[in-house]
Write a structure and sequence with these properties.
This protein has 383 residues and is α/β, with parallel strands linked by helices. It is built from 14 helices and 13 strands. It has three domains: 1-35, no CATH class; 36-352, 3-Layer(aba) Sandwich (Rossmann fold); 355-383. It has helices at 2-8, 17-24, 49-58, 96-101, 132-149, 170-185, 205-209, 231-243, 263-273, 288-301, 311-316, 330-333, 340-348, 358-377; strands at residues 38-42, 62-67, 86-90, 109-112, 120-121, 128-130, 154-158, 190-194, 197-198, 216-219, 229-230, 252-255, 280-283.
Length: 383
């Protein structure tokens, strides 16, 4: 009874509903074997992963994260969950046994966030370490097999709204192939297709903003548009989907922003927000010389360890965020996505000359000019 009374005094912040019921009835009924829900996440250390872990940690989930590196790669996730509710498992996506070990037996939900915008390589640029097919297809299949063998109740696979088997981009094609193999291996999987995500750590708006010091040339996207969505909204939506596996079993969920923009419109918005009046030129697709020059530059840059742009990026710029037929949306999940301009401004502001101190500096200069005018007009008024 003493241990039960101690349990009742535990703080209830972050506990799920089932955990609260369990602690309330601990003195009069046998304590259940597990009073919380468990989820195994692959790709939790990435851009989207931290927002998903934050949403799940606030709801009292026990989060198992599969990581490939050391403790430095996931330590930023520690404050997002209660003590003892975040557990790392080290794995290699090419080793099925290690993938299986990263999913504890009886896990409620498995969430796959694994993805890469370029093919990783060793020091020698022609030696590819992980191809798009390795990352988006084979790893996705290995996770689906492991989830089925671990008797997980639910599998959520995150793809992309630009995924298509007929896309000119290999990245987009392998994303679609990954959806297909996961659906075959784990019937009832929920496939989530978000639009291009933006946030403070993104490689989307920050990419444009970091190139505001020089005129920008874009390859003709042939009318392709994207529907940017705030990464925090996607994270909250995934937490909702993970928590109700009966509702989202065997479904496709499109998480798209409210408006669609071309890449030139995105660049104009970014440059206008940060106060840079730089020219933006779109290379005509019929200008074979400039198109070849852009492709040659991309081939050189993609040989670097962390390329700024790749040849596949040029092809991906021709792919649009396309909704799926019969798919659920943010409204079905119960999350209202933020307006693009309302969130993007908050972190683009730092690229302005002077950053957040720009307006204060303008007020200071205005005051100095006023004082200077008074001194020039009548020095006695300042005495």
């Amino acid at each position: 009874m003493a241990s039960a009374r101690w349990l009742l005094r535990l703080p209830r912040r972050g506990l799920s509903t089932s955990a609260r019921i369990a602690t309330h009835s601990a003195a009069g009924a046998p304590f259940p074997l597990r009073a919380y829900r468990t989820i195994s996440i692959f790709g939790a250390t990435g851009f989207l992963g931290r927002y998903v872990v934050n949403a799940l940690g606030r709801s009292g989930w026990q989060v198992h994260i599969a990581v490939r590196g050391d403790d430095m790669e996931w330590r930023h996730l520690k404050p997002l969950c209660d003590l003892g509710m975040l557990m790392p498992h080290y794995y290699n996506a090419k080793d099925q046994a290690s993938v299986q070990a990263a999913i504890p037996e009886g896990t409620d939900v498995v969430l796959n966030l694994v993805g890469k915008r370029y093919e990783t390589k060793h020091v020698l640029p022609w030696h590819i370490n992980n191809t798009f097919e390795d990352t988006h297809v084979r790893a996705a299949l290995a996770i689906a097999v492991a989830a089925r063998k671990a008797h997980a109740k639910h599998l959520v696979h995150v793809s992309s709204a630009r995924a298509s088997l007929s896309a000119p981009s290999q990245w987009a094609r392998t994303k679609a192939e990954g959806e297909a193999v996961v659906r075959m291996e784990f019937p009832g999987v929920c496939v989530v297709r978000p639009g291009v995500m933006y946030g403070e750590e993104d490689n989307f708006l920050n990419w444009y903003a970091s190139r505001s010091w020089t005129p920008l040339e874009l390859v003709d996207g042939e009318g392709a548009t994207v529907s940017p969505v705030f990464v925090g909204d996607v994270g909250r939506a995934l937490a909702q989907i993970a928590g109700d596996w009966h509702k989202y079993c065997d479904t496709t969920v499109d998480l798209l922003g409210k408006d669609a923009y071309t890449q030139k419109q995105i660049a104009e918005y970014v440059f206008g927000t940060i106060g840079k009046n730089k020219s933006i030129r779109v290379v005509d697709k019929n200008d074979s010389f400039k198109v070849s020059l852009a492709a040659a530059g991309a081939r050189f840059l993609e040989s670097l360890p962390n390329p700024v742009v790749t040849t596949d990026d040029l092809a991906l710029s021709k792919c649009s965020d396309a909704p799926s037929k019969g798919a659920l949306t943010f409204a079905d999940v119960g999350v209202t996505p933020a307006a693009f301009e309302s969130k993007a401004f908050n972190f683009l502001y730092r690229y302005q000359p002077g950053g957040h101190f720009r307006e204060l500096r303008a007020i200071e200069l205005k005051g100095q000019q006023h004082v200077s005018h008074l001194l020039h007009k009548d020095p006695k008024k300042i005495a």
